[in-house]
Amino acid sequence: MPTAIIADDEYLQRDELRRQLGSLWPELAIVAQCDDGSAALDAIKRYQPDIAFLDIRMPDLSGLDVARASNGLCQVVFVSAYNAHALEAFHVAAIDYLLKPLMQDRLQHCIDRLQLKLKDKIKSSNLILMMEEFEKRLRHSTPKEQIRWISVSTGKAIQILTIDEILFFESDTRYTRVVTASCEGLIRTSIKELQAGLDPEQFWQINRGILVNMNAIARASRDEFGAIKVELKEHRDQLKVSQTYAWRFKAD
Description:
Number of helices: 6
CATH superfamily of the largest domain: Response regulator
Strand order of the largest sheet: 2-1-3-4-5
Strand content: 25-35%
Oligomer: single chain
Number of strands: 15
Shape: elongated
Order of helices and strands: EHEHEHEHEHEEEEEHEEEEE
Number of domains: 2
Helix content: 25-40%
Structural class: alpha/beta
C-alpha cells in the first residue's frame, strides 16, 4: 500500500487535500499530517513515506527546505498558492507543482504520474531482490559445485549466461563486469568468490581483478615496456597481465 504525508500550516487546506486524495486514490494511506516544516521532515524520516505533499510557505522550514533536507527519501509534490517557486521546485526534483485551490483533474494527473513512478520503483526493487537471491546462491556454492551459469544485470533486465560463453570477468571495488562476445552486464560477486566455483583450468586469473576464459584467448604479446597484454578472439578489449601471473604466458 503506498503511503504519504501532507504538510500545510492551514488545517482546512490539509483536510481538503486529504479528502480529495481519499476520493481519487483510496489505496493511498496518509500516515501523517503536519503543520510546519520541521514536523514534516521528522515525519519523512520516521515513516519513510512514498510521497510527501508539501506546502511551500510553512513555519520553521519551507517546503523547499524540507525537500532538500529529505534528499530523495520520497517523491515530492509541492502544493502552493503561489507559482513563483516552480523553478526552484524543479531543482529539488519535485515530481509536480500543484496550485491552490486544487482542481480535481489536475490532481488526478499528478496521481497518475505518481503511480507510474511507484510502479517503476517496485520493478527496480524486485530486480534487485532477484539479483541478490541469485548471488546468494552463487556465494553459497561449494568448490565441488562448479558454476554453470551466471545471472547478470543488463540495464533493466536480467540475462542468464552460460559459463562457456563468458570471455572474461573484470572486477572493481563494487561490481564485477561479465563480458561475452555479444553483450556484457554486472554482478556483485567478487573475483575471489567466482574462483571458488569456476574451473581453474578454464578461467585463468591474469591480474588481481580479471579472470579470463583461456578458450577465448587469441594471443599474448609484450608492449615496448615489456608488459604482457592478452588479445581475445571475439572482443576488442586487451587485458593486462600482472607480473604475478606472467608465468602463464612464457614459451616452453
